[in-house]
């Protein structure tokens, strides 16, 4: 029998095709470009990302796209919005990387090649509605980042970062795969909608709990949720800072999208089997992430713990959804779905912005010690104001976008209601105050401390400045007029019915 | 609902956001052009105050219970949040106070710039602060209110942290975290109100909505969350500990704004939001609020007597004075809440003035330690007399504004609202009355230490500047208002009474 080739609608997967083409071009170009011109690969990569983004936009206008591969690959508005987010985040990451990578005597072509491979995984992830596709997408995201984390070959910290990240990643994948195989055994399908349908009839609930729990653990590693977070600070600190920015935003978002797909499209009906662990993981991430961040003296490590804590905030709507499933409160499904996406988008902008500032400042201080930020306001006021904005936004202070992210998250928890929802909201509220302390600690160092005697202004290269301006624009505009991203709510209503 | 038309529809928006326009202009001016920066800031605040004057003249005082100059536009339709502004008899005096004090602060700052100088950054923060303060007093949507309420945090944090005293880092972060903690729980309460109270954030709609969906227990909890948010801002005992630190370390203008306007955001929140939206919970909470208020009165007064720093003493006196305001609010009567609003304005003027003087004393002597001060009346007689005048006003001397905030507050607790324990509130009344004796004690003690006697040997030879021109311009309007409001208190009571009476109807008072 001839191989049964599935029908492929090329337009539907055009963003991915564009990315693949770019990946090939980057590799070939790097081969032929003389060494001193290899920075050109960054240009090719960013153009490719923008082309892919254009295809996403075209698809957004184009309506009625059919699911591909028997329903395993769905391109709806929700998937497109996330693809757009991943591509924009990658574009910003390239802007962050250009000067860092070209000045550091690193392999340039390979860097962008790996970055794009990872993004390819993310765009696939947004559409994945099948356990196998989901797993392949997750690995495509992860494997290039293992190598990227070890990019500074001669730096032992970077090596440590890579090896730790790789080992943990491999273990978590194995655990997750085991869980997924159990799910398959219980439901007889890998397609999420079919799993959702069949789960309702699964009676062996002990095995079900184990299966769901194991598959969730895998994602908990990816999004660095407590207690599976301890790779993050070392990896974040050791990896090149632009890679850290990428890991903490795009790669983490990849994990969250996987979690969204699997929880909302697959496991939703059996919230009884996962709501308790998710609740505990969310609370533990918020509490431990924030309390540990308090003690950090290194900016990147602090941002690592802050990203663990922010991940905890993002898990709150998942728990809210689970709680509400128990109360048969249908509206919460939409609220919490919306909250996760809104939080991801806003978190992406403010965290990338903060990392852009960290990279810029490190050009002068050569380190990420918070102490080195002393008196920055006196030497580089504009940069300080930007950094302050991003940090204040991370702390959730209005009218910067972070408040809206926190607000939607609180809203989901309060709407879910009951003691479980209310206590979750109160813990999140108290923890966001704790978070304000360490974010403001950096602000305090920049504004209130005297500058060292010979401090010179920080010179910000054009690419970095562009990325900061883009992030700052998002943080201000979305904060003042959140309605701009409120159409996400319509996506949510479509998806959750 | 009466939406305003024409210019009136824009009046509140302009009052709120004109400082933002000034801020934008300010950012374009190079840092070295200090004179220009000062002029632009002054003009911005004057224009803003001009709008407030227009509002005061066009306000229909016979319908002070109704929201006037209303605008309501969609802001975040997805969440049913509106850009809803409105002004009634309770908001008007506070809005006026806010815009008024900011102008005077700019004038006072003219040649009193605390280190590290940098007028551009200082005035930029001041203008941002004004947006938050003005906006809070006119917002009629809970989320909008929350945004403005929070907007004041960062500017004040920087004002204390950059231009403050030696212990400024501690004071600024303490101020910030305390307030943020309160407002986080307040936001949760707002959300709970939304889901339990008819899926709206609109304050008038929430007041009108029936609360059948909420059990009494839920109402109590929601009120509790808001209570924390507002009580920390006021601040009530035992949440007051941020205040003495913040006041002591803040630069003069920061202290003045904190005392004159920012503390009122908390008491205003009680009157505008917590009481009318959840009247039943308010009745249950009122005895506790009253209790904390009188503890605050006594504790604040005792705290004053233990201070050696003049500014810290004034800060503690704020705790006591805000205790009177909160006691008046906790009676849930029209009489009490009228007194509370009056007390807020009077405290704003008087304590604001006291902080100005403390700043000038610090400027002249380089210290605020009362044990080192003395003989202000001989070295700078005008300033000494003004200090005496303000101390008299602060202790509630009849004929000055302070009296009308304090005396009716005490009197109102003789007859608390329906359902409240009369004996308990009369007990509060006695304690509060004793508090006035303490107030006279610590204020006169401070006056004696600072103004009377002979200058200490270390300052005997030094030449202390008496009240300078900029100071006269900044202070005279406040001093005049303290007298005018003291003699014609009806200016205020007439404005607030309609709104307050309408508000207290739910309490059967």
Explain what this protein looks like in three dimensions.
The complex is a heterodimer of chains A (about 500) and B (about 500). Chain A is mostly helical. In chain A, about 75% of the residues lie in helices and about 0% in strands. Chain A has helices at about 15-30, 40-60, 75-105, 110-125, 130-150, 155-185, 190-200, 205-220, 230-240, 240-265, 275-295, 300-325, 330-365, 375-380, 380-395, 400-415, 420-450, 460-480, 490-495. In chain A, helix 4 runs antiparallel to helix 5 and helix 12 (about 300-325) runs parallel beside helix 16. Chain A is globular, with a radius of gyration of 22 Å. The two termini of chain A are about 40 Å apart. Helix content of chain B is about 75%, strand content about 5%. Chain B has a two-stranded antiparallel ribbon with strand order 1-2. In chain B, helix 3 (about 90-110) packs parallel to helix 14 and helix 11 runs parallel beside helix 13 (about 310-330).
Main sheet specs of chain B? 2 strands, antiparallel
Q: Total number of β-strand segments of chain B?
A: 2
Terminal residue distance of chain B: 25 Å
- Helical content of chain A stands at over 70%
According to DSSP, the number of beta strands of chain A is: 0
Unreliable residue runs of chain B: none
Order of helices and strands of chain A: HHHHHHHHHHHHHHHHHHH
- The order of strands across the largest sheet of chain B is 1-2
Structural class of chain A: mainly alpha
Helix share, percent of chain B: over 70%
Radius of gyration of chain B (CA) equals: 22 Å
Biggest interface reads: A-B, 33 and 34 residues
Give the structure's gist in a few sentences.
The complex is a heterodimer of chains A (about 500) and B (about 500). By secondary structure, chain A is mainly α.
């Amino acid at each position: 029998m001839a191989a049964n080739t599935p029908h492929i609608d090329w337009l539907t997967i055009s963003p991915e095709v564009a990315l693949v083409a770019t990946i090939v071009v980057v590799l070939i170009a790097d081969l032929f470009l003389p060494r001193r011109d290899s920075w050109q690969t960054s240009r090719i990569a960013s153009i490719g990302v923008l082309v892919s983004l254009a295809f996403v936009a075209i698809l957004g206008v184009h309506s009625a796209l059919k699911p591909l591969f028997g329903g395993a690959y769905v391109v709806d508005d929700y998937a497109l919005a996330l693809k757009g987010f991943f591509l924009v985040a990658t574009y910003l990451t390239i802007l962050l990387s250009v000067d860092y990578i070209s000045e550091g005597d690193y392999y340039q072509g390979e860097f962008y090649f790996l970055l794009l491979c990872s993004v390819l995984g993310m765009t696939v992830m947004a559409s994945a509605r099948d356990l196998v596709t989901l797993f392949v997408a997750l690995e495509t995201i992860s494997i290039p980042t293992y190598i990227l984390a070890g990019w500074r070959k001669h730096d032992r910290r970077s090596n440590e970062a890579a090896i730790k990240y790789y080992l943990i990643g491999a273990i978590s994948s194995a655990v997750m795969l085991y869980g997924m195989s159990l799910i398959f055994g219980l439901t007889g399908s890998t397609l999420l909608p079919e799993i959702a349908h069949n789960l309702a009839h699964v009676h062996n609930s002990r095995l079900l709990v184990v299966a769901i729990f194991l598959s969730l653990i895998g994602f908990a590693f990816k999004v660095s949720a407590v207690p599976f977070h301890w790779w993050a600070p070392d990896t974040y600190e050791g990896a090149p800072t632009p890679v850290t920015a990428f890991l903490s935003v795009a790669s983490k978002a990849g994990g969250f999208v996987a979690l969204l797909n699997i929880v909302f499209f697959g496991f939703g009906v059996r919230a009884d089997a996962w709501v308790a662990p998710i609740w505990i993981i969310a609370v533990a991430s918020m509490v431990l992430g924030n309390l540990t961040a308090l003690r950090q003296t290194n900016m990147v490590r602090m941002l690592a713990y802050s990203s663990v804590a922010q991940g905890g905030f993002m898990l709150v709507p998942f728990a809210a959804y689970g709680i509400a499933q128990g109360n048969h409160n249908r509206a919460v499904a939409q609220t919490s779905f919306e909250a996760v996406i809104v939080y991801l988008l806003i978190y992406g902008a403010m965290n990338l912005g903060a990392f852009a500032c960290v990279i810029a400042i490190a050009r002068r201080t050569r380190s990420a010690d918070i102490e080195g930020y002393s008196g920055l306001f006196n030497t580089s006021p504009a940069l300080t104001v930007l950094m302050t904005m991003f940090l204040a936004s991370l702390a959730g202070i209005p009218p910067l976008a972070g408040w809206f992210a926190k607000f939607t998250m609180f809203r989901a928890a309060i709407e879910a209601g009951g003691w479980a929802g209310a206590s979750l909201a109160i813990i999140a509220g108290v923890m966001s105050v704790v978070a304000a302390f360490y974010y403001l600690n950096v602000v305090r160092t920049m504004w209130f401390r005297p500058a060292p005697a010979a401090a010179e202004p920080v010179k910000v290269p054009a690419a970095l400045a562009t990325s900061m301006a883009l992030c700052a624009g998002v943080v201000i505009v979305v904060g003042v007029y959140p309605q701009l991203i409120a159409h996400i709510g319509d996506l949510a209503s479509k998806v959750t019915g | 609902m009466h939406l305003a038309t024409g210019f009136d529809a824009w009046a509140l928006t302009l009052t709120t956001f004109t400082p933002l326009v000034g801020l934008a202009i300010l950012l374009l001016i190079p840092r070295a052009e200090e004179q220009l920066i000062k002029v632009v800031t002054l003009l911005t605040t004057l224009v803003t105050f001009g709008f407030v004057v227009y509002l005061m003249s066009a306000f229909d005082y016979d319908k002070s219970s109704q929201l006037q100059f209303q605008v309501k536009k969609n802001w975040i339709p997805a969440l049913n949040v509106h850009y809803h502004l409105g002004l009634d008899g309770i908001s008007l005096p506070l809005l006026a106070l806010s815009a008024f004090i900011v102008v005077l602060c700019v004038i006072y700052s003219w040649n009193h710039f605390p280190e590290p100088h940098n007028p551009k950054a200082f005035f930029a923060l001041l203008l941002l602060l004004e947006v938050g303060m003005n906006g809070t007093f006119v917002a009629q949507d809970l989320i909008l209110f929350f945004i403005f309420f929070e907007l004041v945090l960062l500017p004040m944090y920087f004002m204390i942290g950059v231009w403050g005293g030696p212990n400024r880092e501690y004071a600024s972060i303490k101020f910030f975290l305390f307030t943020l903690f309160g407002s986080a729980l307040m936001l949760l309460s707002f959300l709970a109100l939304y889901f339990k109270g008819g899926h709206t954030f609109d304050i008038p709609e929430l007041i009108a909505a029936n609360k059948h969906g909420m059990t009494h227990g839920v109402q109590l909890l929601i009120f509790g969350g808001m209570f924390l948010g507002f009580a920390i801002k006021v601040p009530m005992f035992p949440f007051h500990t941020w205040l003495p630190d913040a006041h002591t370390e803040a630069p003069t203008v920061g202290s003045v704004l904190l005392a004159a306007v920012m503390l009122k955001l908390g008491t205003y929140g009680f009157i505008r939001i917590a009481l009318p939206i959840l009247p039943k919970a308010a009745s249950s909470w009122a005895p506790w609020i009253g209790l904390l208020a009188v503890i605050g009165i006594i504790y604040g007064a005792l705290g004053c007597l233990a201070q050696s720093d003049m500014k810290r003493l004034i800060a503690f006196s704020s705790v006591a004075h805000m205790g009177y305001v909160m006691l008046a609010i906790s009676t849930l009567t029209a009489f009490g809440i009228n007194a509370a609003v009056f007390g807020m304005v009077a405290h704003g003027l008087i304590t604001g003035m006291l902080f100005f003087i403390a700043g000038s004393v610090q400027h002249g002597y380089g210290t605020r330690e009362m044990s080192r001060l003395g003989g202000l009346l001989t070295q700078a007689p005008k300033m000494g007399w003004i200090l005496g005048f303000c101390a008299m006003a602060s202790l509630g001397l009849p004929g000055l504004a302070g009296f009308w905030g304090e005396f009716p507050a005490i009197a109102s607790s003789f007859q608390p609202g329906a359902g409240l324990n009369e004996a308990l509130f009369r007990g509060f009344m006695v304690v509060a009355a004793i508090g006035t004796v303490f107030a006279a004690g610590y204020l006169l003690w401070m006056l004696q230490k600072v103004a009377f006697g002979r200058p200490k040997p270390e300052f005997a030879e030094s030449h202390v500047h008496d009240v300078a021109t900029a100071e006269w311009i900044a202070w005279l309007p406040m001093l005049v208002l303290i007298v005018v409001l003291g003699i014609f208190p009806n200016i205020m009571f007439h404005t607030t009474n309609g709104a307050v009476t309408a508000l207290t109807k739910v309490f059967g008072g």
